[in-house]
């Protein structure tokens, strides 16, 4: 498990320093990126940034489960999830 983390504020500051843009501009771009990503994936469109990552909506069928507190059998409704896959450049950077 990673012992370091980079929160949004630190990410915005790092991208601003790397790109020479203001933190407000970078923050606005990130907001637009996440908004577009959420809308696209929510509509079932796979979003791919070649070499870096792919994000897509997945469907989960209805299934039987158990309430962990009581052990009672329950029915879990069908629904959607999100799958995020790392691309080759991201995988190479992790080595």
UniProtKB/TrEMBL annotation:
Coiled-coil spans in chain:
none
Q: Name one GO cellular component term.
A: cytosol
tRNA processing as a keyword?
A: no
Instruction: Name the CDD domains for this protein.
Output: SPO1_TF1_like
SUPFAM superfamilies to which the protein is assigned, alphabetical: IHF-like DNA-binding proteins
Give GO MF terms, alphabetically: DNA binding; structural constituent of chromatin
Where does the source fall among the domains of life?
Bacteria
Query: What are the GO BP annotations of this UniProt entry?
Result: chromosome condensation
Alphabetical keyword list = DNA condensation, DNA-binding
User: Per the record, a Pfam family?
Assistant: Bac_DNA_binding
Q: Which PANTHER family match?
A: DNA-BINDING PROTEIN HU, DNA-BINDING PROTEIN HU-BETA
The UniProt family comment states:
Belongs to the bacterial histone-like protein family.
| Protein name per its UniProtKB record | Integration host factor
């Amino acid at each position: 498990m990673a012992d370091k983390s980079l929160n949004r504020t630190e990410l915005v500051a790092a991208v601003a320093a790397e790109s020479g843009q203001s933190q407000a501009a970078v923050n606005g771009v990130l907001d637009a990126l996440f908004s577009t990503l959420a809308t696209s994936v929510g509509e079932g469109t796979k979003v791919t940034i070649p070499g870096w990552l792919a994000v897509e909506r997945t469907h989960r069928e209805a299934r039987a489960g158990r309430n962990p507190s009581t052990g009672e059998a329950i029915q879990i409704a069908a629904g959607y999830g999100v799958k995020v896959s790392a691309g080759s450049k991201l995988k190479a950077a992790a080595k």
